[in-house]
Amino acid sequence: MPDARIALIRHGQTEWSASGQHTSVTDIDLTPEGQDQAKVIPRLLAGLRIHPTSVLVSPRLRARRTAELAGLTVTGTLDDLAEWDYGDYEGLTSKEIHEDRPGWSVFTDGAPGGESPEDVTARADRALATAAESLGGGDVVLVCHGHISRVLAVRWVGLPITAGAAIAMSPAAVTVLGYDRGNAIIDHANVVPFAGTGRG
Description:
Layout: E1 6-10, H1 15-19, H2 32-47, E2 52-57, H3 61-69, E3 76-77, H4 94-100, H5 106-109, H6 117-133, E4 139-144, H7 146-156, E5 174-180, E6 183-191
Parallel strand pairs: 1-4, 2-3, 2-4
Antiparallel strand pairs: 1-5, 5-6
Helix pairs in contact: 2-3, 6-7
């Protein structure tokens, strides 16, 4: 197994991530705080000893801006890194959704008019396969979103998508995937160098 690792980076804060609104296809930019968060990412990657030779980003503006402000050299855009399509729940908070559907979780129930857990599992597995192909050349960075990052992390270690509910991914956080003695591991999870960010 290669010594290189995969670093998942969630985009910096947006108005909707700050308010807890589900954001997929709505293409909004970072807040000033989100921009500041993105600028700290290089120090965080250095501390984790991540030296990217390949950087793949979601097609969404918030991910591309995060990569740009972090000074990352983007080598490609990957549609499979887009956030979970929330369909009818786009723009709603979990509290609002739970008023009509108590106990709802995107990881088990998916989103009406959007993607199912099976849809997102397939996308995550494809994205990880693409990233793994580049590990022979060095560390790979994937700049994407909260829920898809959580799915990527648990699928890397062979867990079902429902396990994504057990891992956090704050704005501009880094989660590192790698190997230990030939086994896929989550090396670091939800690492942030600053306080005051929400979870998505």
